[in-house]
Amino acid sequence: MRTPHAPAPPAPPGPRTPARSALTPAVLLGAASVLLLTLVALEWRPLLDLDGGISRTTHRWAVAEDGLTQAARVLTDWVWDPWTMRLLCAVAVILLLRRPAARWTAGWLVVVVALATAAQQGLKAALGRERPVWSDPVDSAHYAAFPSGHAMTATVVLGLLLWLLHRHGVGLVVWRTALAVAVVSVAGVGLTRIWLGVHWPTDVLGGWLFGALTVVAAVAAHRRLRPTPRGTARGRSGGTRTPSPSPSPSPSPEPSTSDDPPRRPR
């Protein structure tokens, strides 16, 4: 009597390619960015009312809290200014150029930041959204409002630098410190722009969304055009390491041709 064969177990899923792993966040960020852009362009009244209510409240606080307002001006004009971010990017490019194997990545970093700046200025020119106007302003800014250039530039530059640190396998302490600084900077620069009354909240949100979308797309392009060589594996800290060679098998003992009984080991 034949025994029925058990069904074969399902094959394990194959490894996720870089394109597949970046597809979901890219689609989500792209959809959110397009939706916000459309609502701003159409001047959707509920969105405008929300912007106005938040901005009026934070402006009253900014006028009343002169110390916090001065600190916000220093942070937004010097520490988190777009030119400060570009200077930080330039330092990273110089460090990458010192290594011949990283020169392609240095050029990629320059091109991505330049394209992000051009896209940001193009969106501002296309929408021409006016900034908040106050009778008692605490700061001033020029040109169109959407998206926030401060928020988008900080998101792009710090996001790309974080990925490069992770890719080059920095230590855990350095990684956590860099991550904390980046999160505080990206969030802080957006909040200071709203506090100072030079941007609507949705301007800042748009800068964050378009900046994050740029980072995801740029990283996916880098992985596709400059993939990690085969035969390397990711370490815990995100760097690449080559697998250790497997030990060579010890030679098997020669078969005994003697009629004597085998000796016992001492």
From TrEMBL:
Composition bias, Pro residues: 244-254
Highest taxon listed in the record's lineage: Bacteria
Pfam family, one: PAP2
Biased composition (Low complexity): 228-243
Keywords assigned by UniProt, alphabetized: Membrane, Transmembrane, Transmembrane helix
Region (Disordered): 226-266
Domain Phosphatidic acid phosphatase type 2/haloperoxidase: from-to ranges: 106-219
SUPFAM superfamilies per record: Acid phosphatase/Vanadium-dependent haloperoxidase
Transmembrane segments: 21-42, 78-97, 104-123, 143-165, 177-198, 204-221
Protein name from the UniProt record: Phosphatase PAP2 family protein
